[in-house]
Specification:
Blueprint lengths: L12 H18 L1
């Protein structure tokens, strides 16, 4: 799993979680 988008700052766990969810949705849609 290599996110194409740049990772958010370390002080932004929410952002990372949201991005992870977005990637999961993309994977689900792709399948």
């Amino acid at each position: 799993d290599q996110p194409r988008e740049p990772r958010p700052p370390v002080g932004d766990p929410d952002g990372r979680r949201l991005r992870s969810d977005r990637h999961r949705r993309r994977a689900a849609v792709a399948l």
